[in-house]
Design a protein that fits this description.
mainly alpha, Serine Threonine Protein Phosphatase 5, Tetratricopeptide repeat, 130 residues
C-alpha cells in the first residue's frame, strides 16, 4: 500500500464517521488494519476502531480493540493506545482498571521524564476522583 492510499482510506473513514455511518467507517478502518500497514499504524487504526465502537455503545468491542492496539504498540515501546484505553476506563468509572494501566506504564524504562510526570498526574487525579 502506498501512503496516498492509506491517507485516502483514513480520510474516507473520517468522512463516513462525520456522516454518522459508523458501520462503513469501521469497515474501512478494519480493512486498513488487515492491510500492509506498519505495526504502529495498525495500533493507531485499532484505537480509531475502539473509538468508533465506543460511539456505537459497544464497550466490549472497544476494549478488545484497545487491547489489540496495545499489543501492536507495546513491542515498539509506545503507549498512546494504552493511555487512551485508561482514559476511556476512567470515563466509564472504572478507575481501578485505569490505575492498573497507568501504574504498569510507570514501570516502563522507556518513558521519558515528561511522560512519567504526566502519568503520575493522571494517577493522582484518578485517585482523587475516587
Amino acid at each position: 500500500m502506498k501512503f496516498q492510499e492509506y491517507y485516502d482510506s483514513a480520510k474516507r473513514a473520517s468522512d463516513l464517521l462525520e456522516q454518522g455511518d459508523h458501520a462503513a467507517a469501521l469497515g474501512v478502518l478494519k480493512s486498513l488494519i488487515d492491510g500492509e500497514l506498519p505495526d504502529l499504524d495498525k495500533a493507531m487504526m485499532a484505537m480509531n476502531v475502539a473509538i468508533v465502537c465506543q460511539k456505537m455503545g459497544q464497550e466490549g468491542d472497544a476494549l478488545a480493540w484497545y487491547d489489540y492496539g496495545i499489543g501492536m504498540e507495546t513491542p515498539l515501546m509506545r503507549f498512546s493506545v494504552a493511555e487512551a484505553k485508561a482514559a476511556y476506563l476512567v470515563s466509564k468509572g472504572r478507575n481501578a482498571e485505569a490505575l492498573d494501566i497507568y501504574q504498569s506504564l510507570l514501570g516502563e524504562k522507556f518513558l521519558m521524564f515528561r511522560d512519567r510526570d504526566r502519568l503520575q498526574q493522571y494517577v493522582a487525579a484518578v485517585r482523587q476522583s475516587g
